[in-house]
Structure formats: C-alpha cells, structure tokens
Specification:
This protein is α/β, with parallel strands linked by helices. The protein contains eleven helices and twelve strands. The protein has an eight-stranded parallel beta sheet with strand order 10-9-8-7-6-5-12-11. Strands 1, 2, 3 and 4 form a four-stranded antiparallel beta sheet that branches. β3 and β4 form a beta hairpin.
C-alpha cells in the first residue's frame, strides 16, 4: 500500500547541543531532532506526495512540522516523525551510535569485483580476518553472486562454499558474521554454523521457506530492495518514483517480516543500489537515503565499486572505483546510514573517521 505522504529529513547536521525528544515540553526554539537517535540531527523536512506526472515536494523547517496544520495527514506525519527520530536498538550486539562497516567476503568465482579471489575456504577466512584487522565490524559471507546477469548457484555448491568459511571465522574472530544468501536451507545451516545476521537481497521473496526459517533462527535480518531476478533485473526496470517505490517495497517487507515473527528491532533495510536500477535510479536513491529512516529501522548502504561509479566517472574496472566508493560511503553516513557494506575496509574506515571528526569539530569522544 502506498503512503499518502513521505517525510525526508534535510538540513542534517552534527548537533553539538543537548539531545531533544519529540514530546519534550516548553522548548522555545526547535534546532533539530536526532536522526534515528544518532549523533546527527535534522532541522527541516521535505514533504513528498505522489502526483502526476512528478512527485510534489515542499520543504518545511522543523518548527512548522509541529505547528503547521497537517489536516487528515496529522497522524501519519506524527508517526513518521517518531520513526525518524527514535534511537535504533543494537543489531547482533553492535550499537549503532556510530557507522558500522560490513566487509565483503565473496566465496564465488564470478562476483563483479573480486570473483575467484577467495574461492578457497582458507583464503576466504584469511581475507575475512584481514578485513577485521582493518576495522570491519561485520563480515558478510556470500557464496552466490547476485551481480546483474549472474546465474543461480545450486544449493549444495553454495553450502560447500560458505559453511566452512563461517565455521572458520567463528573460531578465529569475535566479529559479527553475516550470511548473504537467498536460500532458506543456507540460512538454516549458516545459523547453526555460527552466523549472526541473515542478509537476503530478495527480502525473503526468492525462497518460499526463507521467511519462516529466518524467524526460527531468531537472528537479525537485512532485507534489500531489488526489482526482478539478478539474471534480468537491469534489462528494463520501471518505476513511478524510484525513491518512493523503494520505500513502499521495503515497508511492505518489514511488515511481512514482523507478521512472520521477526521483531522490528531485528530488521535492517537496504535500498539496493544497482539491483534493478539504472544510473538515474541509483543516483536518485542515493539522494533520497535519509527518507528511509522513516521506516523506523537501521539502513544499510551497499554501493561499493558498483557500476554506478563506473558510469559516472568512466571507470570500467571495478577495482579502480575505490575513490568513488569512498564518496558513496561518506554520502551514506552523512545521511545517517548506520551500516556501509564495502570491499575496501581500511580506506572506508579512514574516510569515515576523518569525516566524523571534521563534522563534529572535535577529535575526542567519537567512539
């Protein structure tokens, strides 16, 4: 079901004053509300409504959001504001009061950037440990490439690739382990092997058993937006408004997860850069990232080395897109994204730490 209005936080800044709550009384001037309960705050909102031929957008300062007459939208606006400002709970034991880095460990021969480099289990384990040493908070283990035009991998082969890696990493590091899979049985076996998070690019729509299995594991989940199957998803993607359509889809999948028994406190959303989206769709979603905080759950951004960067900068080799990847990571954390999924952990960590210090105006107390 499509919403009647959407609220996108703007005028986002590092608030150096005391924190404020929506229902705090007797405040003479509203300077900002905490964005998802984090260190960033927002002082204005873009109010979006669907219309033909284009979405209507108007900007209001935060004070007007409380004093203005919302009419029949008053309840919806109040609910969205609550979702936008409420602090997010820990995910797999990780607090989200600072950006978290998810390092990519592809145990595949055909991933778009590093396919074949870590197909051997021992190499994949060593790569994962190296990413932890560089600053990764989470390791995302994947045994099936979901790049555009990729072929599906048989269940037994995917299990053969990922389970030894998960077991090996769990024995050697305390880092959070995520399994990147669309298959229910891989989820079940990965959870038994020690995985802490289930990351499904199909948002539990690919395998009819996956949602029930995910609920049974009681693990946190990442649900991503994608239009179509990886084999054909970028052939001809169509949207009325890609930013709002992605929001609606993710909202529906959050509701499906909750209905299946997965608490909202254990759900993370990913807008799915590059999944069923052309360049103009991807940059629109990047510009709209702060809107997705209105879902009331943490947001993950996975734009590392992706084709969007190559198209914008005329760079064919994915490994030459590190600088562009850092730019997308900074754009993400500047919009309040809580988790960035990246290939280049050391570089990303350095970029985020410098950005945080420069934004906060201090080198102290940011951990």
């Amino acid at each position: 079901m499509k919403r009647s209005i959407y609220l996108q936080p703007t005028a986002i800044f590092w608030d150096r004053s005391g924190r404020r709550a929506i229902d705090e009384p007797d405040i003479p001037e509203w300077r900002g509300l905490p964005l998802a309960g984090g260190r960033l705050s927002f002082a204005a909102l873009d109010v979006l409504t669907r219309a033909t031929p284009e979405t209507k957008r108007r900007t209001i300062v935060l004070g007007d959001a409380f004093s203005g007459d919302w009419g029949r939208e008053a309840l919806a606006a109040a609910d969205i504001l609550e979702e936008l400002s409420t602090q997010r709970p820990r995910i797999a034991g990780l607090s989200l009061d600072r950006p978290r880095i998810m390092g990519i460990v592809n145990v595949t021969p055909d991933s778009f950037s590093d396919g074949g480099e870590n197909l051997d289990a021992e190499k994949a384990i060593a790569h994962g440990l190296a990413l932890v040493a560089e600053g990764a908070d989470i390791l995302d283990i994947g045994g099936e490439s979901t790049r555009p035009q990729s072929d599906a991998v048989a269940l037994d082969e995917e299990l053969r690739r990922v389970i030894p890696v998960i077991e090996g990493l769990c024995a050697k590091t305390d880092a959070v382990i995520s399994i990147d899979t669309r298959k229910a049985e891989v989820m079940r076996r990965a959870a038994a092997a020690g995985a802490d998070i289930l990351n499904d690019v199909s948002a539990f729509t690919h395998d009819p058993d996956s949602l029930a299995i995910a609920a049974e594991t009681e693990l946190p989940v990442v649900i991503m937006h994608a239009q179509g199957d990886p084999k054909t998803m970028n052939d001809n993607p169509q949207y009325d408004d890609v930013v709002l359509d992605v929001f609606d889809y993710l909202e529906s999948r959050v509701q499906a997860c909750v209905a299946a028994g997965i608490p909202k406190s254990k759900i993370v959303v990913d807008p799915g850069i590059g999944f069923g989206k052309h360049l103009h769709h991807n940059v629109a979603v990047m510009a709209g990232l702060s809107l997705y905080h209105g879902l009331g759950v943490p947001v993950l951004l996975g734009a590392s080395r992706k084709k969007m960067i190559g198209q914008l900068c005329n760079v064919d080799d994915a490994k030459d897109r590190v600088s562009g990847s850092l730019a997308t990571a900074i754009a993400g954390v500047g919009s309040g994204v809580q988790i960035v999924r990246v290939h280049d952990v050391k570089e990303t960590k350095q970029a985020i730490e410098v950005w945080r210090a420069c934004t906060a105006g201090t080198e102290k107390g940011l951990d």
